[in-house]
Amino acid sequence: MPRVFIVFALLVCLSTTAALADDRDKALKLFEDSDKAYKAGKFEKAADLLREAYGLYPEPLLLYNLGRAQEGLGDARGALESYERYLKDAKELKDRVRSSAGSRR
User: Fold this and answer.
1) Helices 76-89 and 60-73, interaxial angle, to 10°?
2) Contact (Cβ atoms closer than 8 angstroms) between residue 54 and residue 79
3) What does the alpha-carbon distance between residue 64 and residue 34 come to, in Å, rounded to a whole number?
4) The pTM is what?
5) What is the pLDDT of residue 18?
6) What pLDDT shows up at residue 103?
7) Which of 51, 64, 79, 81 could form a disulfide with 86 if both were Cys (CB 3.0 to 4.6 A apart)?
8) DSSP assignment of the chain
9) pLDDT means per 10 residues in the chain (105 residues)?
10) What's the pLDDT score for residue 19?
11) What pLDDT does 102 receive?
């Protein structure tokens, strides 16, 4: 019985990994479609695609792009919320300047 449980657990892990990769691929396609919509000035469509992509694969960069699309729509409040979530959720931001306490330049 324990051997069956181990095999089952491995199958569940493998299927979960495959599902995550599939969701990531779908999210990437949605991101690419949102980029095209954004460049065409279709900000509402871009925002909808980015929300869907984030629901599949919560990559913080999608929140940043959602904020940009919301700005294009004139939705300042929505854009601010998206940017704040991006800053909160992103582990490492290449464009963020980090200052250390007490350092002087």
Assistant:
1) 170
2) no
3) 13
4) 0.71
5) 66
6) 44
7) 64
8) -HHHHHHHHHHHHHHHHHHHHHHHHHHHHHHHHHHHHHHTT-HHHHHHHHHHHHHHS--HHHHHHHHHHHHHHT-HHHHHHHHHHHHHH-S--TTPPP--TT---
9) 50 58 92 96 97 95 96 97 94 61 45
10) 65
11) 46
Q: 73 near 47, Cβ under 8 Å?
A: yes
Tell me, what amino acid is at 78? G
Token readout for 7 is 């095999």
| Nearest C-alpha neighbor of 20 from the set 63, 57, 58 | 57
Kindly give, in sequence order, each residue whose CB lies less than 8 Å from that of residue 22, ignoring residues fewer than 6 positions away: none
Domains and CATH numbers, the chain: 24-89 (1.25.40.10)
